[in-house]
Specification:
The complex is a heterodimer of chains A (about 110) and B (about 120).
Chain A: E1 5-7, E2 10-13, E3 19-24, E4 31-37, E5 43-50, E6 53-57, E7 65-68, E8 75-79, E9 88-95, E10 104-105, E11 109-113
Parallel strand pairs in A: 2-11
Antiparallel strand pairs in A: 1-3, 3-8, 4-5, 4-9, 5-6, 7-8, 9-10, 9-11
Chain B: E1 5-7, E2 10-14, E3 19-24, E4 31-37, E5 43-50, E6 55-58, E7 61-66, E8 71-76, E9 85-92, E10 105-106, E11 110-115
Parallel strand pairs in B: 2-11
Antiparallel strand pairs in B: 1-3, 3-8, 4-5, 4-9, 6-7, 7-8, 9-10, 9-11
Classes of the chains: A mainly beta (about 110), B mainly beta (about 120).
C-alpha cells in the first residue's frame, strides 16, 4: 500500500541551526501538509500546500518556517533558525484531491533542538 | 478556544470490553474524523463522519455525531490488546472547506490501554 515517507526519523540539532525535514508524499497526491506535535500535546496544523504554493497556514507557521516542493516527489519543511521550543514530532500528510478528506500521514520526524 | 477536546484523557479497560471515547468541538464543522496513533508513530485514519450524518460504522468502530451538542463519540467494541493507542478526533471547518487544502484541527486525544 502506498505510504507517506519521512526522513530522517530523528534529527538532533543545535539551537540556531537550520534544519530541513523531508517528506515523500504518496505519488499521485496533490495536496500536502505539515503538522507538529510537541511531546504530550495535540497535533497542530502548520501549513498546507497545493500547486506549488502555500494554501493555508497557521499562526505557528511564522517567517522561520518555509516549505518547498523541489522536485516531483519531495516536500520539505525548513526551519531557518531553530529554537528549543521547536522540539517536536513533525508529521507530513497528503491527500489525493480536493474532495478527499482523509489525510495520509507519515511516521514523523522527531526534532530535538539542544 | 480549543477545538476537538477528547475525554477521557486516559482509559484503561480489559480486553474484550467496549471502549468509548468522546470528543467535543466549538465551531461548526464540515466533517469529523477519528485517527489512531500508536506510540511514537504517525496517525492512521479510522473513520470519517460528515456533518449531515448521525452515526457511522466500520468494523468494530462506531462513531456518532451530535451537531447540536457539538460532540462525537467513538466506540470500539470487543477491544483487543492491539487497540492500545492514542485516539484523536479531528475536525474540518466549513470556513476552509472546498479549497481542498483544509488543515485538520486535532484534539488532545484519549490514551487507551487494553489490559490482556
Amino acid at each position: 500500500e502506498p505510504e507517506v515517507t519521512q526522513t530522517p526519523s530523528h534529527q538532533v540539532t543545535q539551537m540556531g541551526q537550520e534544519v530541513i525535514l523531508r517528506c515523500v508524499p504518496i505519488s499521485n497526491h496533490l495536496y500536502f501538509y505539515w503538522y507538529r506535535q510537541i511531546l504530550g500535546q495535540k497535533v497542530e496544523f502548520l501549513v498546507s500546500f497545493y500547486n506549488n504554493e502555500i494554501s493555508e497556514k497557521s499562526e505557528i507557521f511564522d517567517d522561520q518556517f518555509s516549505v518547498e516542493r523541489p522536485d516531483g516527489s519531495n516536500f520539505t519543511l525548513k526551519i531557518r533558525s531553530t529554537k528549543l521550543e521547536d522540539s517536536a514530532m513533525y508529521f507530513c500528510a497528503s491527500i489525493l484531491g480536493p474532495l478527499q478528506n482523509i489525510q495520509y500521514f507519515g511516521a514523523g520526524t522527531r526534532l530535538s533542538v539542544l | 478556544s480549543q477545538q476537538g477536546e477528547e475525554d477521557p484523557q486516559a482509559l484503561s479497560i480489559q480486553e474484550g470490553e467496549n471502549a468509548t471515547m468522546n470528543c467535543s468541538y466549538k465551531t461548526s464543522i464540515n466533517n469529523l474524523q477519528w485517527y489512531r496513533q500508536n506510540s511514537g508513530r504517525g496517525l492512521v485514519h479510522l473513520i470519517l463522519i460528515r456533518s449531515n450524518e448521525r452515526e457511522k460504522h466500520s468494523g468494530r468502530l462506531r462513531v456518532t455525531l451530535d451537531t447540536s451538542k457539538k460532540s462525537s463519540s467513538l466506540l470500539i467494541t470487543a477491544s483487543r490488546a492491539a487497540d492500545t493507542a492514542s485516539y484523536f478526533c479531528a475536525t474540518v471547518s466549513p470556513a476552509y472547506s472546498g479549497g481542498g487544502a483544509d488543515g485538520l484541527t486535532f484534539g488532545k486525544g484519549t490514551h487507551l490501554i487494553i489490559q490482556p
